[in-house]
Amino acid sequence: MSGADRVDGVDGPGDARGSRDAHGSGDARDPDDRHLPARVRRDIWVLGAAVGVFGASFGVLATTAGLTVAQACVMSVLVFTGASQFAVVGVLEAGGSLGSAFGSALLLAARNAAYGVAMAPTLSRLSLGRRLLAAQIVIDETTALAMAQPGRTAREQAFWTTGLAVFVCWNIGTVLGAVAGDAIGDPEALGLDAAFPAGFVALAVPHLGSRQGKVAAVCGAVIALVLIPLAPAGVPIVAAALGVVPAVLFGGTPDAGGDTRASRDGEPGDAEAAGGPGTDAGGNGR
């Protein structure tokens, strides 16, 4: 094929290939239409299994604090937010009242409202019934995994997959822990108390790659450290969510010039896949 054939882009076989590259490959699709990769689905279920182990420790602590097996299981199904559940059983075990226990739980659960705001654009196209169902699984893990995805479809799939994995594993863990009781032993002695903070670290790390993530992390940490000696337990954690405000105002905005993630992975981004700068008329990359 002559150079003229390539430049004109009319009849050469390279044009068909270029057309396939530009319009038929997964890389050329709108990022919002890309599906969740299989490896991410696998990682989500690994995370769910880890959460399930910690759910077993909740089951043990709940029955130790005086809850029945049924009460512990119902709490995991209906409340379904680990920090709040541990706050309840912690207060009850220390001899506190139900009012104090529920107050602590609601204070810790307040951060989920911020997660709901973050997920609203992704879930807004769902029916009212599905959005009500989604509200039950708006937690740390589902929000973090969803927001780490590059497109709307992948975010929505990550949200539901993570919600299913964590909900199933957390509740199975609760049942096993509540039934087994003392046979499992002291969760702290087994190191299970470290699973929850380790999970938070694993969820936060992917977001630190962006400028907004770094600004939010630094500001949130500063807010929490300042409030720890001044505010009641639980308040610094909730207040740390305010670190998102300076991140939005001063952290810059995501790139609008195509799918930079694909380019970093060594695959053509949206501009190149569509025959933009960096490709010749036959669709061949540089």
| Outline | globular
Describe the main β-sheet briefly. Answer: none
- Termini, distance in Å? 19 Å
**Protein structure class:** mainly alpha
Number of distinct beta strands: 0
Q: How much of the sequence is in beta strands?
A: under 5%
Cα radius of gyration in angstroms: 24 Å
Mean pLDDT: 75
> SSE order in H/E notation?
HHHHHHHHHHHHHHHH
- Percent of residues in helices: 55-70%
* Uncertain parts: 2-26, 253-286
Query: What is the helix tally?
Result: 16
Regarding quaternary structure, what we see is: single chain
Can you walk through the features of this model?
This protein is mainly α. The N terminus and C terminus are likely disordered. Helix 7 crosses helix 9, helix 9 packs antiparallel against helix 10 and helix 12 runs antiparallel to helix 14. It starts with a helix and ends in a 13-residue tail after the last helix. The chain has 16 helices and no strands.
Short description:
With 286 residues, the protein is mostly helical. It is 65% helix and 0% strand.
Keywords for this entry:
286 residues, mainly alpha, 65% helix, globular, disordered N terminus
Q: Which helices and strands appear, and what pairs or packs with what?
A:
Blueprint: H1 3-8, H2 13-23, H3 38-64, H4 69-78, H5 82-93, H6 98-109, H7 111-123, H8 128-136, H9 140-147, H10 152-180, H11 195-204, H12 211-227, H13 235-239, H14 244-250, H15 260-264, H16 270-273
